[in-house]
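Hi R.,

Here's the chain you asked about this morning:
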Amino acid sequence: MDKDTPYLRVGINYYKIIQQPLASKDTIKKIIPWSIGAINEDFTKDKRPKIPKYDSFCNIPDNIKYKRVHGNSYNLYEPIEWKLKPGKFETIEMFLNHIFGEQYNIGIDYLTIIWKHPTQILPILCLVSSERNTGKTTFLNFLKDVFGFNMTINTNEDFRNQFNSGWASKIIIGVDEVLLDKKEDAERIKNLSTTKSIKSEAKGKDKVEQEFYGKFILCSNNETDFIKIEPKEIRFWIRKVPVINHENNKLRELMKKEIPAFLHFLSNRTIKSENKTRMWFSREELYTDALHKVINSGQSKYEKEIRNLVIDLLLNFELDEIHLAPKDIIELLKIENNVYRITKTDITNIIADKWNYKPVDEPKYYKLYSFQYENDGTMTRHETAKTGRFYTFPKKDFIKKSEK
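And the predicted structure, written out as tokens:
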């Protein structure tokens, strides 16, 4: 329909479907306002095309059983152009092994979910490396080849711009060379990753609320502070991508030839990861050293001191959780690190306001653990019975499985 009649009427407004050329020699589909007067000028009355009429736009992604029209609404999500067929995809498999490494199965599950269940909320995938020639941008281009008009690759400015109509209906929003180092940037992308709807806004047009299913993929040469992430945040999956040892300037073309077989594979495979959270994957499955570095880079000196104290106590006493009151933390930090300036307010701001832990409602009995190293290098452990309003710090929040 789009190719035969490049016009449509939605509500009382007319639009033209165009293919806008890009510098890359690709094109991007756009639906732009078009006046009935211009249409009348372009055609004589007897040759004017029959323009289909719709009540509204909608955004309903489906890669397998696609429908252009739902009810009498025009679907902004585009059909996938690839014709699926069984076959080998050795180049794609090799490349995805490079990107996802030891988390290859999770990576394939992630792509399968986007393909088979595009409305499912997923974590924000971040590919980072300070080195060049790692394949980060190639990964974005590969997904662009797979999903076509349903994916866009943006810049930081595109993402920060109030006019978001260019990506509001996309299933994947890639941001290359990302640097969203302001707190409001991180909050915005976190909120967008889990929201069900978005207000799409184009220049000179009113905001229009629509369903939103976008998955964000961020690529950065900055490994530690391209975005601010809180310690208990579960919405980010960060992978450090290694350098590609053998550069192949035909890699993208080779992978494009294998896409029909790869999509056939995705359509028929069973997802191995259990659906455990609203973003499908658990924090433990997605936790990486790269995520740990980003979290640490955004922490203040006191926050790092408190976190290291909690980890030391959990490990040295082999506990699954530990109880500490702000006063305990002050005393333990004085003993260990001669940190005298930290106050109860500083501690509460970190563990209650920033980490979102809550103390017990009323004073209760608990054990306070402490240790110190003697001059001969031996460690002395102490246990003290106390009563107070303490916070509980579970081991799973501070120590990943590989460190236990």
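The radius of gyration is 26 Å.

Let me know if you need anything else.
M.
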